[in-house]
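User: Second chain of the day. Same drill as before.
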Amino acid sequence: MEIREVKVDHFCIPLPAVLSDSVHGAMPDFELVTVFIRTDSGLEGVGYTYTVGRGGSSIRALIEHELTSILIGADPRCIERIWSQMWWLVHWVGRGGIAAFAISAIDIALWDIKGKALAEPLWRLLGGTNRKGVMAYAGGVDLFFTPEQLHHQAKSFVERGFRAIKVKVGSESIARDVERVRLVRETVGDDFLLMADANMRWSVDEAIRACDALRDFGLHWLEEPTVPDDIQGYARIAASGKLPIATGENMHTIFEFQRMIQFGGVSFPEPDVCNIGGVTAWLKVAHLAEANNLPVTSHGAHDLHVHLLAAVSNASLMEVHGFGLERFINEPLRFKNGEAIPPERPGHGVDLLWERLDRYRVNCGG
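Assistant: Same format as last time:
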């Protein structure tokens, strides 16, 4: 089997409602970069990555002008070899960052092909530990919401069957964050998993103070209290003993996760399949977490992460993110009693509706 065709597309997709967090501010849209791969046997695979509104054209260019040269003529089933070749081709200018986003989209497409070649859904192909469902949480991207909007959102999540939700913190004052978390806790009740996400907003000392202020609300975890580069800072926050810590959506290599775990800075490693290097790298982070007796969770891209969390034995909660693709998927992910049901379709089963996406296409150079 050989790869004969690679096509890259770039879309800018408006969100149904403006979302917000402490670092990126108001987000009216997000970018989607897709990779379509066809083999000489007619098998086709699709992979994708996303951004919070910037960088998509650079990801697309890297794939088109650099990484495609490795793919044409390669056997798509030899994924580890292709991954390594891509990594080293752009290592000097990449080593994570935009390179990780580009590699992720290609790697996901290759695993899609492999699943289709073997007529297996990705979750079963990768290990298949959980065929019934993966417990999901609703990831609110809601820092600028009014108290009324926050209450309505939390109530609607509960009505939709979620048994866990996340609220944004990292506003202009810790006191305001406390009130936001208090409001959501009162809305959902005590017998409900609740997390908070600061999106790297605080210094280490501020994060420790925030942990102390939020400790009485029974948070399942506090996510990204400070920048991911400060590994020793994370260790200080975790050592304060106030709250379990989740982090990883801004970490783009397995080595970053290795050091964070080694220093004791994380309770819930959180790789994102769309920026860690695809399925290949995500699994390595999950196994690294398992070797250190830690659960693994996810960030964004729930249509893909349902497979990965259903495949590993140390799976934690799966985030259902505001950057969803439900409007553009032929058979969106199904949920039952707060759990995401892994699809039985071969590959990852994400059948994009290209005719709906087309109106949001970004022209090359546009």
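Residues 97-117 form the longest helix (21 residues).

User: Great, on to the next one.
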